[in-house]
Design goal:
CATH class: Alpha Beta
Order of helices and strands: EEEHEEHEHHHEHEHEEH
Radius of gyration: 19 Å
Number of helices: 8
Strand order of the largest sheet: 6-7-8-3-9-10
Structural class: alpha/beta
Distance between the termini: 54 Å
CATH topology: Rossmann fold
Amino acid sequence: MKAVIQLEGIHKTYDTGEVAVRAVRGVSLGIRPGEFVAIMGASGSGKSTLMNIIGCLDRATAGSFLLDGVDVSGLNRDELADIRNQKIGFVFQGFNLLARTAAVENVELPMLYRRGNLTGHDRRSRAAQALETVGLGDRADHLPSQLSGGQQQRVAIARALVNQPALLLADEPTGNLDSQTSIEIMGVFQKLNDAGITIIMITHELDIASYAKRTVVLRDGLVVSDAPVTKRLNAEREFNRLKVEQQAVQLA
């Protein structure tokens, strides 16, 4: 089974004029279909730079990068934009929803930039199905202001899924959410991963990384740890535990 992500000897150096900053220093990493990988590291570790390279938002200075079997190193700007739209679904810390646009219309947006002829009916149908997948089928006509933070992030996840990408790339997806809502969102990711979707998640929170199946830790632009999650958290179980604890506090 070919890897969704195959990095070999990836370097990224930024020339600031006076000094060269080596943000990534020879990272080799393979991620296969169906994996759920958390990439961790302190500020300055290179995790954001690596995410930008994996997401085709930046180019490596050296090394090779295959995305779903496609060598992206020689692609021009337009080709990179196409592959981002077709191969990668992005979920960010900020939900980035259009404020005056209904949830279903926000989810339709990536399809407007997709090559090929999708009718308006097809777009609406696929967007509605994506919202059903994340448990928001009954909120399709709601504006972002009418949704909670967790619901807005679910809309963002549906938008990321609508083009059926090879990879879901999540950058600090729970960074703007409280603990209970964060567990809910990790439950969505676990269900999507159980359905076969490959997920790479950038996080600095150890407890959030524990919902993944594998953790890669970066330090000073190098991979210092790459191992399975031995004590994986189950989001549904953790959510129920948290509810019981909150009820006990209210009754005390």
